[in-house]
Amino acid sequence: GFNRFYDQINYGEDYGYYALHYEPETSTMLLSPFWTDQLNLIRQIAKSLPLHFKLYVKEHPGMFGYRPHAYYRELKKIPNVKLINVNENSLDLIRKAKIVFSISGTSGLEGALNNKPVIAFGDVYYNKLSAVSRCKNIEELPNMVKNCLENFQPNEQELLAFLNAILEKSVDVGMPKIWNWRVDEKTARQNLEALVDFLADYINLKI
Fold first, then answer.
1. d(Cα 201, Cα 207) in Å, to the nearest integer?
2. DSSP code for 21
3. Rounded to an integer, what distance in angstroms lies between the CA atom of residue 110 and that of residue 105?
């Protein structure tokens, strides 16, 4: 019964993109505890967009079927909001969007990597990028949106440096393999040891 809530995508219109977060999750409860009311946040974002803009909202795949119909009915009451089918490709929606909004989710990083202006509401690592503006005061949001749409300048060199820094300070660890200890203890141990060694080296550098 969810299909009746979905709106048609029109890539020819100007729109912002917001991906609903999984709940409960660290990304909202810990990284952005003051922005956990996503319905209200979407209302504020929709109000802050230019008059002719739409706000495309897409459900998190892991939450499909868990939010009640009443939640989507409230979303549909917001005049310039379009609810997008959960099966649509998020990257396609981001690439065609004029601006991306996220509390602290992956869509914010994906927006920046696709040279889109991003407004984030939570304390998240990709806030360091010049493409990302952190909103701490909701009354400033309309001006932030206006500034992003009018003055955004992509910075490819910064993105490359950012990705390089992440790769240099990362280790290839399969977390599900660690959790699967009882099924494959040898693989779990190898992944856990790689993670422990990485953390030990990092702590030593800090000391």
1. 10
2. P
3. 9
- Token pair for 11: 């890539």
Quick check: 52 and 134 in contact, CB under 8 A? Answer: no
Query: Which range has the top average pLDDT, 34-38, 59-63, 113-117?
Result: 113-117
Q: Above 70 in pLDDT, residue 207?
A: no
Is the pTM value of this prediction over 0.70?
yes
121 vs 176: CA distance, rounded Å:
29
- Residue 184 has which token pair? 């494959």
CB-CB neighbours of 34 under 10 Å: 11
Going 64 to 69 to 70 to 75, the CA torsion angle's sign is positive
**Residue 95: DSSP 8-state:** H
Q: What is the pLDDT of residues 144-169, one digit of tens each?
A: 999 999 999 999 999 999 999 999 88
Q: Would you say how long the chain is, in residues?
A: 207
Residue 22 is classified by DSSP as P
Before 24, cis peptide (omega within 30)? yes
Cα separation, 45 vs 91, in Å, equals: 20
Residues 135-146 pLDDT 10s: 999 999 999 999
Terminal-residue alpha carbon distance, the chain: 56
